């Protein structure tokens, strides 16, 4: 996707959705999953990902678990109970937004 500004407002929802589907994930794993699922169209940079992860953690939506992997410490992120509830809300919000954009962009497909 040429214009990364288009998805930046949805980054938190993307992160929450992935964690809801995969349990716990570490940062690089999240970036690679997004890249794979979108066939390279969306590529989340570390500079965008980690501030979002820290913000979601500060809001009480994520827990962090540190594990030693190959003699390195790795941070795994997982949803809290509040995060699980918020994920449902955020996905619904994004779906409504997409439907509204669809109505504007291609009214013939709107119902």
UniProtKB/TrEMBL annotation:
Residues 15-86 form the Transcription regulator PadR N-terminal domain. PANTHER family: PADR-FAMILY TRANSCRIPTIONAL REGULATOR, TRANSCRIPTIONAL REGULATOR RV3488. It comes from the Bacteria. InterPro entries: Metal_resp_DNA-bind_regulator, Tscrpt_reg_PadR_N, WH-like_DNA-bd_sf, WH_DNA-bd_sf. Signal peptide: none annotated. Coiled coil: none annotated. This is PadR family transcriptional regulator.
């Amino acid at each position: 996707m040429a214009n990364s500004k288009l998805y930046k407002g949805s980054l938190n929802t993307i992160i929450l959705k992935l964690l809801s589907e995969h349990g716990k994930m570490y940062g690089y794993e999240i970036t690679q999953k997004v890249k794979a699922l979108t066939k390279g169209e969306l590529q989340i940079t570390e500079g965008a990902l980690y501030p979002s992860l820290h913000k979601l953690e500060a809001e009480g939506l994520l827990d962090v678990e540190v594990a030693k992997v190959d003699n390195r410490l790795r941070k795994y992120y997982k949803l809290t109970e509040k995060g699980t509830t918020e994920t449902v809300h955020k996905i619904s919000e994004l779906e409504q937004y997409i439907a509204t954009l669809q109505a504007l962009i291609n009214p013939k497909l709107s119902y």
